[in-house]
Structure formats: C-alpha cells, structure tokens
Design a protein that fits this description.
The protein contains seven helices and ten strands. By secondary structure, it is of the alpha+beta class. Keywords: Transcription.
Length: 237
C-alpha cells in the first residue's frame, strides 16, 4: 500500500528514498534467507536468440500473471532457473484501439541463469539460448563463463518488483480512465441517437419516448400508419 501511495503522491523525496532503501534491504534479506534454505545460487548470463524474448501481449484488464517469453519457457522446461528482468507498459492496440499490456526485457538480448552445478553445455543447447557470456582474466587465456554477484541479482530483482508496483498503480488508473471514456462515449452516442429519433418523431408526429422505444423501422411505420388512420377517423367522427 505504501508503494501505491507513493505512485499517486510523489512528495518528500528524501523520506521516500529512505523508505525505498528500507524496502530494498528487507527484500534482499528475504532473498538471502531463501538462498540459505534453497541451496547455493550461482548466476551467469546467456545471450538470447533474437526474437526469443518477445512476450505475448494481453488485454490490460486481464489480472493473470504475464505470459513468459520463448527463452524463459524453454529454460524452465529444461530444468533451469532463469531471471529476465522486464518492464510492462499499457498501450492502445493500433487496430481495435483497446488497451493492451506489453512486456519488454530490460536487457535486450540477455537472460540470467542460475547454474550452481555449472551445466554450461546443457544450457547452451536450450532453444532460444545463443551462448554463455565469457571473459578472459588475462590476455591469451581461455575465456570462461562470468558469474554475477548475488547482490547484483537481488538488487535487479528488487528494482523489477518496485517498478512493477508503480506499473500496477498506473495500469489501474489507465484502465479505469478508459472505462470512463468508453461510458461517456456511449452516453454521448445514445444521446445523439435519441436526438435524431426525437427529430424524426416531430416529423412523424410520434412522441419522443414512443419513438425511442420503437427501434424497428417497420414498427415505427405501423404505428404512424395506425395513428394517421385514427386521426383521420377522429376528424370525420
């Protein structure tokens, strides 16, 4: 709830910075506890095949978890734990103009993989994975896979989580605003249609409420013909 309040009331920057830092320390503390319970973590980076990080877009009002990309699904199916930092945006579909949610990688072309048992050959064989990132300690030496500090991964996880909270608050506002705009547009269209019917009623001598209730042209025609006949009969009575 504090995070949502910050999104709508961005004031007192120093206080918010302290709160964010406290949340980050708490988050990292929980992550380190998970690491002690779940075993060793050793994170490496792999180069992702172009297009393998693309995630399917979903309707903005869909509350289900975001769909995973090809490389994330492939790594999970092969038994690897991966971490692809992402961010989400709400955009309007170019054809139907509806709001949709899109998910993008923060590091385009790269995914982190937890390899405590150093299964380097196996991970490079996974669909969507290009190769492990390697480096040479000294010139002329054989390059070896580079492992990232656990602190780096934990801070990236917190950054992704924090930004996702901001996104969720913006998304809730944008979805609600879109609903309001659609309701206003529908009311405006209904009002304009009602006005046209009232003008037709004036021309056809039908009352406005009656004209609005008669949506079928054949029904309106029948009522007008009957009304004309009744008026004619009344005049000759």
């Amino acid at each position: 709830m504090q995070t949502l309040n910050r999104a709508f009331n961005p004031s007192n920057e120093e206080r918010l910075a302290k709160e964010t830092k406290a949340e980050e320390l708490t988050f990292r503390g929980l992550r380190s506890e998970e690491g002690r319970q779940g075993g060793q973590e050793l994170w490496f980076a792999v180069k992702a095949v172009p297009g393998s990080q693309r995630s399917p877009s979903t309707p903005a009002n869909d509350d289900r978890a975001p769909s995973l990309s090809l490389v994330e699904r492939s790594l999970a199916n092969a038994g690897f734990e991966c971490f692809m930092p992402t961010y989400r945006l709400v955009v309007r579909h170019h054809r139907n103009r509806k709001l949709i949610e899109k998910r993008f990688p923060i590091f385009t072309g790269y995914v982190f993989v937890n390899l405590p048992k150093r299964r380097f050959v196996e991970v490079e064989a996974v669909e969507g994975v290009g190769k492990l990132l390697k480096f040479s300690r000294t010139y002329g030496e054989e390059p070896e896979p580079f492992s990232f500090p656990q602190e780096t991964i934990d801070r990236l996880r917190f950054t992704e989580w924090f930004e996702d909270q901001q996104f969720l608050s913006r998304k809730a506002y944008e979805v609600r605003q879109d609903e309001v705009d659609r309701e206003l547009k529908a009311m405006k269209n209904a009002k304009s249609k009602g006005s046209r019917k009232i003008r037709s009623a004036h021309y056809s001598e039908l009352a406005g409420s009656l004209s609005r209730s008669m949506t079928s042209p054949s029904s309106r025609s029948l009522v007008m013909e009957t009304m004309a006949q009744l008026l004619k009969l009344s005049g000759t009575a």
